[in-house]
Amino acid sequence: MTTLTNSILEAVREGAGFPEAFTPLHEPEFAGREEDYVADCIRTGWVSSVGSFVDRFEADLAEFTGCSRAVATVNGTAALHIALKCSGVQAGDEVLLPTLTFVATANATSYAGAIPHFVDSEATTLAVCPEALRSHLEECAEKRDGGCFNRKTGRRIAALVVMHAFGHPAQLDPLLELCREWSIPLVEDAAESLGSYYQGRHTGGFGLVSALSFNGNKILTTGGGGAILTNDPAIADRAKHLTTTARISDGWNFTHDEIGYNYRLPNLNAALGCAQLERITDMLQRKRALAMRYKALFKDIAGVRLLEEPQGTESNYWLCTLVLEQFDHQLHTEVLSALNDAGLMARPVWTLMHRLPMFADAPRADLSCAERLAVQIINIPSSPKLFAAPAGAGGDV
Ligand SMILES: *Cc1c(COP(=O)(O)O)cnc(C)c1O
């Protein structure tokens, strides 16, 4: 084992609080009224697609994020699918999205009948690089008929999906500016960024429409779940309609006016979400404290850094992320094995989308920064419970 690998192993072990048992990347935490609210659903019989927790969860999410509306869905992928449809994406269009993302972003694009068009990321936020995207559009796109078109494929470029990787907000201002210039709607994949702010405003409220996820490993969980966020009431109504089988009710009679989706979040899951949202501030504080403890431990280790929240942003530090200085495949593998062998779960970034067999032929920009990041990034244990300040002590350990 190299000295660097050994230093990283010791720092992660200390940062995680010298755990004795296997330590997952991100564990859910149920320390509030979760059990009460779920039991309430069972006692009253309102477990499924109707119930007061769904309405309350949507209202609470809108309030927490500062968006005018939230529509709860069965998972984050479904939320992204409908977000794309609501932003105007149609079959045969292209959607710009980072190659460095979770597969759900590209899958949702395919569900909408569109073709993913992969773009590069940058090393400070790990999100879509505005400069690289600008040059790429100048090289391959043209504006006509009020829209943006790919000159090589002839297809319309119908949206840009920006993903806030591991909770760190993307450079939204230059990306929004670029989208305005090219008449491309911006959609945020905010699945990882609940509780993350860009210049004081919650992520997910910058794009035309955006998606959240409440999967088991996310900041807040409903077991499985997601939500669509928007400040446009017409889009919110359309999202609600599409996710509830496009149902129109008229007293005791109901009908459907287009092909809709059964993407509703069950009341049982929403109950869990309501209780989780009551504790989100506390969970975010402990996650931040954990990230600061890692940051201090990694400060003096040459060859690696803890990815910090970009300037002008507040990150939820969903997954604490180490970035190796070298583009050294062997070192990357060695560190990952050493951590996992020691029971400290660690993961490389997702396989880049353009390397997956189903997207092998998709159009793409130069992706060299993402290619380098793929051998530099290591996610380390980030559960809020790893930072349990002793009662009354507060602050750092
Ligand atoms: C978690 C996640 C999603 C949505 O995932 P679901 O499991 O469907 O809730 C989408 N995009 C990204 C980047 C994610 O991390």
TrEMBL record:
The reactions it catalyses are: GDP-alpha-D-perosamine + 2-oxoglutarate = GDP-4-dehydro-alpha-D-rhamnose + L-glutamate
Q: Which residues carry this modification: N6-(pyridoxal phosphate)lysine?
A: 218
Family matches, as InterPro entries = DegT/StrS_aminotransferase, LegC-like, PyrdxlP-dep_Trfase, PyrdxlP-dep_Trfase_major, PyrdxlP-dep_Trfase_small
Keyword Transit peptide attributed: no
Which Gene3D superfamilies would you find in this protein's record? Aspartate Aminotransferase, domain 1, Type I PLP-dependent aspartate aminotransferase-like (Major domain)
Question: Which Pfam families would you find in this protein's record?
Answer: DegT_DnrJ_EryC1
Its pathway, per UniProt, is: Bacterial outer membrane biogenesis; LPS O-antigen biosynthesis
Which Gene Ontology biological process is one annotated for this entry? polysaccharide biosynthetic process
Is Translocase one of the keywords? no
Alphabetical keyword list? Aminotransferase, Pyridoxal phosphate, Transferase
Q: Which family does it belong to?
A: Belongs to the DegT/DnrJ/EryC1 family.
Protein name (database record) = GDP-perosamine synthase
The scientific name of the source species is: Parerythrobacter jejuensis
